[in-house]
Amino acid sequence: MSEPKTAEPSALTYEQARAELATVVERLESGGSTLEESLALWERGEELAAICQRWLDSARARLTPPES
């Protein structure tokens, strides 16, 4: 199996990060990876989840009116 992509986090859109995260999850769920591959996938998944969360937090901040 090939190693997970490692694009710069700031270069990923929410949609790109979410799609890559879905691929990582599928690969982890399918099994068949070595321990090292699984650990690398898990770490990449954590990075991608954090990127998605930052995008969502930013969107939420833009939609929430400032308190008076």
Structure description:
The protein has 2 helices and no strands. It is an all-alpha fold and 68 residues long. It has one domain. Helix 1 packs antiparallel against helix 2 (35-63). The longest helix is centred in the C-terminal third of the chain and has 29 residues, at 35-63. The protein is elongated and about 55 Å long.
Properties at a glance:
single chain, elongated
Describe how the helices and strands are arranged.
Layout: H1 14-30, H2 35-63
Helix pairs in contact: 1-2
User: Could you list the spans in which at least 5 consecutive residues all have pLDDT below 50?
Assistant: none
**How many domains comprise the coordinates?**
1
Number of DSSP helices?
Answer: 2
Beta-strand fraction estimate = under 5%
What overall geometry do the principal axes of the alpha carbons give?
A: elongated
**Average residue-wise pLDDT:** 89
> What is the helix content?
55-70%
N-to-C span = 54 Å
Radius of gyration: 15 Å
Decide which structural class fits the backbone: mainly alpha
Helix and strand sequence: HH
Please outline the major beta sheet: none
Number of strands: 0
